[in-house]
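The methods section describes the discrete structure representation at length, but only in general terms. The central task, working out the structure tokens from the amino acid sequence alone, is never made concrete. Nothing conveys this as quickly as seeing an actual entry. For illustration, here is how one protein appears when written out as sequence plus structure tokens:
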Amino acid sequence: MTEPALEHSHTDVMSATVRGRYLSLLLLALAIGLIVFSYRVALPTLNAALQTTPAPQAIAGIKGILLGFTVLVMVCAATLIWSGCRMLRTGQSPPLGAWVWRDTKIVRGRMVKRLAWTYIVSALVSCILCIGLVAYMWTTFDRLATAAPLPAGVSVVPQPAATPQ
């Protein structure tokens, strides 16, 4: 059985596919999961790290979250670049065999090239900005970290506050 997208490749409308609808539901579920993760894990960890003297574990947790979000942005950017290259190769948007969640008008010509290059350039700019922001935040959290660990057998005993006389 052929996909509806392949049957209507010579018309101006690409029919919706079951796979496209499942993919859109999956993306919606992932977005909701990311929001819940942000509120339940990322923000409380960030609040803990931004105390007067943040614990090294809190800073390490924030760095892990930053790396996770960076990987997420890189995967999204790679998908955009892949999609833009497919559009350039096939000369239409959506490309042949694409999974679309609703009936979609097929665009061809100069508009497709413009759209494909917009995908590619915006993905590359997003990657550069994300890497720069994470590098800046990483060094900022390094500065927030407590002093270097003490040698074995050395400990710091807090002194009581001096009372004015």
